[in-house]
Write a structure and sequence with these properties.
Layout (H helix, E strand, L loop, with lengths): L2 E5 L5 H10 L3 E5 L2 H4 L5 E3 L4 H10 L3 H9 L4 E4 L1 H6 E4 L12 E6 L9 E6 L9 E6 L3 E5 L4 E5 L5 E6 L2 E4 L10 H13 L1
Parallel strand pairs: 1-2, 1-3, 3-4, 4-12, 5-6
Antiparallel strand pairs: 6-9, 7-8, 10-11, 11-12
The structure holds glutamine.
């Protein structure tokens, strides 16, 4: 079985751990560099990206995570996790940094006020079959997609909400709270392919 980490400094950690375990993965809650060193992939949960940024730097995890991204470790970021994986952030809270890795520009809290949280079906062509039931909770929008990243899903109005680049996967919404397992399985397959 794949041994994977969930970055567990802030955010909806438990939902990801539960889902990954249900899919048969061995899951480590990652709070320290030693824990990170023991995993073959990392999920970065939703939460508040500026806090995740501060805490990962404070706990000495930011640099190891950046190094692992450069080395091709599979990572999957949801919502705040997508922000952390974006190369460019247009509205960073003073000094906020990201790990980078996805050649995209992301805007935080970018769905209008009325719709900053909503649920609905999202078609993911790579999955075929049923659309994904997606829960958006003050999620970020991918404003521009550079040549190195691939769009996995967008809304009817063209808003990009899921992107991929090599072993990195980032999405604006929360599949872990709506019972959607295909993104997590895609992530686990990448981890398995490397070990
Ligand atoms: N608005 C949050 C941020 O900027 C993301 C929201 C979420 O992860 N549900 O980090």
């Amino acid at each position: 079985t794949a041994r994977v980490g969930v970055l567990a400094l802030q955010g909806d950690v438990r939902e990801h751990v539960t889902l990954l375990e249900r899919l048969g993965a061995e899951v480590v809650r990652v709070r320290r560099p030693e824990e990170f060193a023991s995993v073959g992939g990392l999920v970065i949960p939703g939460g508040e990206s500026s806090v995740i940024d501060k805490l990962t730097r404070m706990f000495g995890l930011a640099e190891p995570i950046r190094a692992a991204i450069r080395e091709g470790m599979p990572m999957f970021g949801t919502c705040a996790g997508l922000i952390m994986l974006a190369d460019r952030l247009v509205d960073a809270i003073d000094g906020q940094q990201t790990f980078g890795g996805l050649d995209v520009t992301v805007r935080r809290n970018a769905f209008g006020r009325q719709v900053d949280s909503f649920e609905g079906p999202v078609v993911v062509p790579a999955f075929g079959g049923e659309p994904v039931h997606a829960a958006f909770i003050r999620g970020p929008v991918v404003e521009t997609v550079g040549p190195d990243a691939t769009v996995l899903a967008s809304l009817d109005d063209g808003t990009v909400v899921a992107v991929e680049q090599g072993n990195l996967l980032g999405i604006s919404f929360h599949p872990e709270i709506s019972g959607e397992t295909r993104f997590h399985r895609r992530f686990l397959a990448r981890v398995a392919a490397r070990t």
